[in-house]
Amino acid sequence: MPNSKTWDPIAQSMIEKANEQGFSTAFSRAEAMKPCPIGRGGSCCSFCFMGPCRMVGKNREELAGICGARPATIAARNLARWIAAGAASHSDHGRDMAIALRETAKGKAQGYEIKDVKKLYATAKYLGVKVEDRTKEEIAIDVANAALEVWKGQEGEIVCLSRAPKRRQEIWRSLGIAPRGVDREIVETLHRTGMGTDQDPEHILMHALRASMTDGWGGSMIATDIGDILFGTPKPVRSKVNLGVLKEDEVNIVVHGHEPLLSEMIVLAASDPESIEYAKSKGANGINLAGICCTANEVLMRQGVPSAGNFLNQELSILTGAVDAMVVDVQCVMQALQGLSTKFHTKLITTSKKAKITGATHIQFDEHKALSIAKLIVKTAIDNYPNRGKSEIPEGLDDLVAGFSHEYISYMLGGIYRASFRALNDAIIEGRIKGVAGIVGCNNPRTVQDQGHNYLTREFISRDVLVVQTGCGAIASAKAGLLTPEALQYAGPGLREVCEAVGIPPVIHLGSCVDNSRILTIATNMVTEGGLGDDIADLPAVGIAPEWMHEKALSIGAYFVASGVYVLFGGGESPVGDSAEVTEIITKGWEEKVGGKLEFEPDFDEILRKSMDHIELKRKALKLGSWAPGKYTRTYVTPQELARRGQAALEE
Ligand code: MSK
User: Fold this and answer.
1) To the nearest whole number, what is the mean pLDDT of the chain?
2) Nearest atom of ligand 1 to the alpha carbon of 332
3) Given 228, 251, 487, 632, which is the most exposed site by the fewest CB atoms within 10 A?
């Protein structure tokens, strides 16, 4: 039920409640606050204190800041800094995961264990760590230390690049953008974009691509792999989504943010019989855990913890009056939660060393005492339960299937002994599946919540394009019932046949924002499987962030471009749209160099059209035809018919 604020009727009812009762939310604040028309298009320069300089005026060729900086240089510097900030967020997350693994292996991290030894071996292999005749703890210490080198490298290139297709690695090296360590590239971005240093827009933006790669092929990749080692590589899991996951008669704890380190311990602490007994002693029937944003995705895909929704649901969850504690770590946490939670009984608990919110309760996470801290947080929530006043949890829930890793997808496609991407590649070669669209990223109150994600997802699958998702985009689809096998009703005939035969849904949940690295791995596997070219840029694939709002989205977009992918950002105007020169560099310029390009396109139908044109173009370049059922088998038999014949044979 689309309307002016949200695609989700449950969110709409909560927005109406907030308006009636006079509570401000991001939806109402976005309406009240018009964006700055100068900053919006990348025309504000605040890199020194002679300004800020505003690049406004009709004759843009003649505009200059006090230092003489041209509008294109200013727009390029802005974009490069946003990309570096986004890469820093994901990479700092990955660094903490590596430290937690090292402390776990040393027996110093309370509550953690090495859960997935197979993944530990696979990670050790690409990091160059010896595994033979060693304990898993010895390997894990070396894996953690080798991973931390990805941050420290001053020269050379990060080791994870070796996971990309050979052709892609050659392109990066020939252009001189194979990144050194995360810290070096991000520091250098800040240096280059300061007053009086790098002043050539193209040069600045090539470095921005290099910095972004420290995210996707560096910090995020490490975060994903170590998350799998510590908490298990995801396998499909059923769960529920939307505000209806909160429970009237139980202690509701909502985990929100990004890092799984504490939230995994809260899952343990909340299921501890002592905690449950304690909750009962306070009059509750149990403890109910739910998530928001990417912390939700982390505990959803590995533990099946239900999601209360995506980014714009964070305030709405508190408005139910049923959240006894909202536990936050880093990224995407609105400061407004604090003011709003004081209007209800909700305890807002900050936990990261790096993030406090004035007025919130701070219980600092430390991996050495992680389980004890998680138990304290759970107890704090239980103690707050008797303070709950009238609560109003909206009815309505959706089912979902989450938690596909590239390991599980290759298993589903080929089984235990022949796990591979062959079946997917063949389906694309035959034309049953036309291509793949990664639809990822945030909500943004300047666009209708979830509309872009869900409209595009439905349209793509109806055109036989497989959709892979992460982050808040995946939760948008979950709320619309698109992360279930039932979504096959919207799929085109070719995609439906493949999904039914293999047993995968047409929309695949791959995890949180750092798990966009899983999409890179899947793309690489598709290339190395054969038949679809020798580079990621050859694949009939697109990347889309329809409702983006965070700098991290720009970093993700940039590393996909650097990897050869056509990336489209929707929802609003281009943040560098005032500069035709920068727009040219990130589209045509980048495409000529790296094969990928970045476009900002507010019209969702145009995103769809451009994406399908691109997929067709790539199919043509690979000389792939259309799906013709009789072409590959003498008599084509549908999977349903095969199943029917199998059943009949069994009955005989
Ligand atoms: S949480 S970065 S709003 S996807 Fe990863 Fe969602 Fe965007 Fe945050």
Assistant:
1) 95
2) 8
3) 632
